[in-house]
Amino acid sequence: xxxxxxxxxxxxASERGDLPTVELLLSKxxxxxxxxxxxxxxxxxxxxxxxxxIVKSLLEAGSDVNSRDITQLTxxxxxxxxxxxxxxxxxxxxxxxxxxxNRFGGTALLPSSEKGYLKTVQICLEAGVPVNHxxxxxxxxxxxxxxxxxxxxxxSDVIELLVDAGADENLxxxxxxxxxxxxIELNHHKVVKILNKEYVEQNESIKKAKVLANENRYExxxxxxxxxxxxxxxxxxxxYYKGHFLQELxxxxxxxxxxxxxxxxxxxxxxxxxYTANCLRLxxxxxxxxxxxxxAVLLDPNETFYLYHKSxxxxxxxxxxxxxxxxxxxxxxxxxxxxxxxHKANSLRSLERHEEAVEAIENAIENDPTNSLYQMHKEQxxxxxxxxxxxxxxxx
Length: 396
Description:
Elements: H1 2-16, H2 19-27, H3 42-48, H4 52-60, H5 75-81, H6 85-92, H7 109-115, H8 118-127, H9 141-147, H10 153-164, H11 179-185, H12 189-195, H13 204-214, H14 218-231, H15 236-248, H16 252-265, H17 271-282, H18 286-299, H19 304-316, H20 320-333, H21 338-350, H22 354-367, H23 372-392
Helix pairs in contact: 1-2, 1-3, 3-4, 3-5, 4-6, 5-6, 6-8, 7-9, 8-10, 9-10, 9-11, 10-12, 11-12, 13-14, 13-15, 14-15, 15-16, 16-17, 17-18, 18-19, 19-20, 20-21, 21-22, 22-23
């Protein structure tokens, strides 16, 4: 009992970032292998909250980066899915399985590409995470970045990294469409050029700054951009890169100032609302971050990109009721999107609204009838529904 108490305390201390307590508990014999009711080790708890110092301590104590929780998520994949690239880099030195996948069949590269975590994508590719691996939805990292991106500055850089690493622009999804076909249909002209290997950056300052940033020389990259801004102070691309580099240096207030400056120059460039939201997320200001998505949705209610990423963030926050509402709005715009129905079903299941979860997953099945992933999730929801009904009838 005493050891179990120490183990439970270790998970809680790891989650809140209490390094002295973590080190004390480890010295007293707390186990790094112990899992809570959700299957989380202390390492997973620390990873989910981006507690870098705690992760380092737990790794040195022998924590397993490939240990799975009850959702089949590992700390390694979790760090990639959340864009916590410093933790991801550490885990690669402690035996991370670069070929491991989550319950949806995605490697660490897929969710980081989906969400536009540029540095995480770079680290995954440099580590050798397979670039053309497809998940159970039938999407590769490139397909995720094209379909779930907006073709803007950040996603163009993500896509350029993937293409340079050998991503296949002709690899088709389950509907038979390639990344190139999706980009053409979405009118993402810059992305089309990148996929056709026809894009060349015309701004020499941006070109130089990106090379410096890839080498983690962010201060020099900012100096390069600053010099260019002296001659072209309202260039939105230059302002974006300055903000992005400041964000990578964790100078979030300064980055936010740049993004807001860009919006003052051109309030119609909705791309910057995504950057302000991401920055506020990293500052642990979730309601303000969600508000930035809302601003973009209000300005273009028919654009699914901002609403989708808002729903993604709501799921990360565990605010599934709001996520369900957002997914419902997305499905009203695109009722045949099986991925929207799938995400809605997962949030409904988290809310124990299993009958509605079955209905949502049936919509996914209707639009992608041969996908075994949806059938499996429908069966799980039906089982949970049966268990609940049994309990309501007085069963134990």
